[in-house]
Design a protein that fits this description.
The chain is of the alpha+beta class and about 130 residues long. The protein has one domain: GMP Synthetase, Chain A, domain 3 (2-Layer Sandwich), CATH 3.30.300.20. Helix content is about 50%, strand content about 20%. The protein is built from 4 helices and 3 strands, in the order αββααβα. The chain has a 3-stranded mixed beta sheet. A hairpin with a 5-residue loop joins strand 1 and strand 2. Helix 1 packs across helix 3. It is flat, with a radius of gyration of 21 Å.
Length: about 130
């Protein structure tokens, strides 16, 4: 199977952005909790990139503060990314929520409720 250049770049950018955020987190007290870069989607022209992140914190307020701080630091993250990646252009970063973990947790709860529900009374009857 042949892997496209864009998919290789997505993986490299994801790894580097994740590392930059980890270093930035040590310097910026507004970045709280566990911040995970779950996916990168770099445009084919390499001008823009969507960065999907999941943030795990104790409160919803901390999550909102961390996400807003990430959005504010997008230019700084892009600059640091340009220092690491030896490419002519580095894409402008747009941070987006990755709701897949929340959706998965919600589905797990629904499946758990289905399995715990009492069985109907006619299950034991012979027809």
């Amino acid at each position: 199977m042949k892997v496209s250049r864009t998919s290789r770049l997505n993986g490299e950018y994801q790894k580097e952005v994740s590392e930059i955020i980890r270093r930035l987190k040590d310097k910026n007290p507004n970045l709280r909790g566990l911040i995970s870069v779950t996916e990168m989607d770099v445009a084919p022209d390499l001008k823009t990139a969507k960065v999907y992140v999941s943030i795990y914190t104790k409160s919803e307020e901390d999550k909102q503060i961390s996400f807003a701080t990430l959005q504010e630091c997008a230019g700084q993250i892009r600059h640091e990314l340009s220092q690491v990646m030896k490419m002519r252009t580095v894409p402008a970063l747009t941070f987006l929520w990755d709701g897949s973990m929340t959706y998965g947790a919600k589905m797990d709860e629904l499946f758990k409720k289905i399995n715990e529900s009492p069985k109907s009374s006619d299950d034991g009857k012979n027809l």
